[in-house]
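Model it.
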Amino acid sequence: MREASAARAFVEPFDSLDKRAADLLELIELAEMENDQSLGTEIESELPKLEADYRDFERTLLFSGEYDGNNAIFSVNAGAGGTEAQDWAQMLVRAYLRWAQLKKFDVEIIEETPGDEAGIKGFSAIIKGVNAYGHCKAEAGVHRLVRISPFNSQGKRMTSFASVDVVPEVADTVEIEIADKDLRIDKYNASSAGGQNVQKNETAIRLTHLPTGIVTQCQNERSQLQNMEVAMRVLKSKLFEMEQRKRLEHIASLRGEVKSGEWGNQIRSYVFQPYQMVKDLRSGHETSDISGVMNGDFDPFVYAYLEHTMGAQ
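Modeled.
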């Protein structure tokens, strides 16, 4: 069903553009034959719209990766720096949730750990929609913030870091075997707003895959069993992605290629003071519209990265 949906999402816009282009060509021929100024005005109005829609459609070719059509398991974690980094992580999460809303992606939040004083320590969700992983993978890496700290009484400029981790959600048909001896299961109380709503039962689940050290957790479902199922789904996806990455790195080493060092490294800088700028260090794309980016305008950075990556290939 997902493959059929992805195919329709490609074919239907193509057919629509093809028909609009044919209609416009007929209109141009008619205007030339009859020397009709009113038709010329209609053509001048329709052509820029057709060109803009074609450019948007052309971007679908960027999502040709094997797993680009999958849902994305999307995590944001505060870096070193205490409250500063935790506040920055929350700012990023808020911006990404706004972006997901603009993209009409569905978001299934599976875990959110509040910070000690402000912000969050960690956040995980499954982003669902057409080419969700293809979009989200462009954001994986370390994001750096420079601003005058609201938590510093001396008004000093501070630098904070948060990391974004993205893996494709694997289909149920993909077999990932996890031995019981390799898995540690911790049960704990799910965090909540407090008061009468405090969760008194150990419904939250944390899974630790001992051979790799990968940890996944879920606390937002109603029951321990549901949290276990989601945490296991995330763990299997992360193990699958890790094996895929190892395979690609091995192939690259056999070819004698130099590996990128991009994984886990700083990919983008967000400067609030003394000037305003967001710059991606991979594609070189930048903007001074910091407000737009923090309100979810990530598409220019996503497409610039994907076009840069495709060009490098």
